[in-house]
Amino acid sequence: MTGVTDLIRDRRESRPVDAACAASEVAARAAGVDIRLLDSVSELEAVRRLYERIWRTGENNPPVTADLLRAMTKAGSYVSGAFDEGELVGACFGFFSPPARGALHSHIAGVLARMQGRNVGFALKLHQRAWAMLRGVGEICWTYDPLVRRNAYFNIAKLAADPAEYLPNFYGPMDDDVNRSDDTDRVLVRWRLESPDAEAACAGRPRVTETEAGAAVALGVSAGGGPVAGRADARTVLVGVPHDIETLRQSDPACAAEWRKAVRDVLGGLLAEGARVRGFDRTGWYIVDRQEAE
Question: Are 117 and 141 in contact (CB under 8 A)?
């Protein structure tokens, strides 16, 4: 159903790879979608149109063009689509990063809003993981907006990827209805494909992180919904994010901008100092362990 049989055509004997392919099939079946690799011009043009719908960019500013995707597939990069009864409802693509084929950078993954709750995005990522592992790739990296709570939970808990770097205004201005006029700060995550946490997450056991007694709130939420700076000098600190930053950008752009600056200063500062994000609580908290002073 998922096109994983196409993936395993050239596979080596490998228990982790076999498990990754099996987990991909299970995830796609649970989501009720067919996931397959895409390479024809018509399929890649459909990906372009899908991304325009998701990010609401319009034809003059697509997130990616079909001709670029065509060149990427010819060069051996990854482009896949998720289909619901023949309709393209999600897509994901990535390209190799140095050292050659040692890691894959997953650039854009998106799913139609009406498909939320069916775990189509999870199925796409597991398909990408199986494809990468079949090619000897041990790590997939991508970026996400640290203010988007559901994406933080998806990346850190559901997939067990690890935040590695805070990137202020990484893409510069983006003219779409999702980012609006906000700075495009991103967190780079690294997904170590054969780590115990990743294997457990792909088997349906998300990373669960409990806050320790004595954890300090480094960034909290005020009664009015704005950011409130706290103290970041404890061994474990909590960094909060707003409930729905995308709605906040529309209803209160000034407050959304305050959140951007606050998270950049606090979470970005912690990561720059060598702190490690251990998890993300579904109620909206980054759980961060600071390096102990020597």
Answer: no
